[in-house]
Amino acid sequence: MRKRILVISCAMALLISTRCVQFGNSFERIDNDRLRLLDMVYEPAEAAPGDTVKITAVFAGQEVHASDLQWKVSYNLPYNALGADTALDIGPLEYTEVPESWSSPNTFTVAVKTKIPNDIMYRSSMIPENLVDLVPENLKDELPAEMRLPKSDLLQSLDSTRQVAELLRPLVESDPSGVDGFLDSIGMVDSVRSIYGVMAQLLTIRMRIYVDVKNSFFVESDYTVRYNGVFHDFPGFNVYANTNPVIAKMGVYKVKGAGLVTYDPELHTQECDTFWFAEPGDTTTEIPVEDGYSYFVVTEADQADSAVSFERALEGLPANAVERFGYEYFFELDPGQSDGVPADKLMGITNLVGNKIQLLTPPADTTIQDFVLWVQVHDSYPGVVFRPYGSYLHEVRGRFTYR
Fold first, then answer.
1. Residues 6+ positions from 403 with CB-CB distance below 8 Å
2. Which of residues 361 and 321 earns the better pLDDT score?
3. pTM metric for this prediction
4. CA-to-CA distance for 129 and 70, rounded, in angstroms?
5. Which three-class secondary structure state does DSSP give residue 12?
6. Cα separation of 206 and 2, whole Å?
7. Under 8 Å CB-to-CB from 371, ≥6 apart: which residues?
8. For the segment 200-221, what is each residue's pLDDT rounded down to a tens digit?
9. Contacts of 170-173 spanning 24+ positions with Cβ under 8 A
10. Could you tell me how many helices (H) and strands (E) the chain has, helices first?
11. CA-CA distance, 16 to 47, in Å (whole number)?
12. What is the pLDDT of residues 167-209, one digit of tens each?
């Protein structure tokens, strides 16, 4: 499940109470007279209390500047077993603006850095006084005795262990076996360390970022705070951190045969030419269009992280799979070529259930040639308590040539 992002126009703000996005055109198409949020990228994808996080809001369509944005935050999101949540104690976000290295003439990007409060977990209503209350009935008896302490005692223990972990971090990266022996020597034997896989999941909370753009466009976005990044890679801890995906390349498959709706080179045998978009994204790649072919956009992403479900963590079992990626495509046409053209003659992209390969329909009007294409890649892994959501955005430019 992707991180919770809610985008509401001012006119609908009083009418909409559930997650939704309102668009005057197709979801995939960006118009230069409508403001659109392409992504909220958090770096790192997850953080621990006291860490600093960079938040990058990437917009397209109408022009946006840092002075147009008002940032607010709630560090307290009560949550119940039914999944209903709300936000308490909403106030101004303390931040510093930072130059954004990722930019293009086709987007408007605002980046800020903010520090997670040191005491956020102590104050958050997401963590009950008794962690047993968070565990499903059929698993309560399996919760280790060490996890049945009061909330404040568990958090203090976790903070103390964090201090040791931060001192040992350089050694973890150079000599993991040395860390293993040292932890044993201070009483953190395997049976103790294995508890942290469960503890890190139960002691996970979310904060909510609010962005008000020009008093007419509102964004809500949730961010996960937990200790996984602190204990990631420590031997015996069974704790896994999440990172943002890495987008390696984007391209277009030109497949022999008109009217195809799906294509996968690993499953299908049709004749296919691949056109990989040039890097950097401001270099235009030509896509030849001719009758008798179907077209599909494709993205290759790397850096799939491992994770362990809560039930496996309770059993002391390590991760046995990696996360899955979902893909969402957006595009913008040159308004000088597309203005006034009927919608059914414009370019289209399917965006079917987050697949990395999606049907691309070239424009039926051959005066439309130039386009900008974005992909947002986000990750997911089932069964992890409030697992952080990693995402990243990539942009390329293309030009259709007609034969």
1. 288, 289, 290
2. 361
3. 0.90
4. 34
5. helix
6. 13
7. 331, 332, 333, 334, 347, 397, 398, 399, 400
8. 999 999 999 999 999 889 999 9
9. 172/233, 172/234, 173/233
10. 8, 20
11. 31
12. 999 988 888 888 888 888 888 888 788 888 888 999 999 999 9
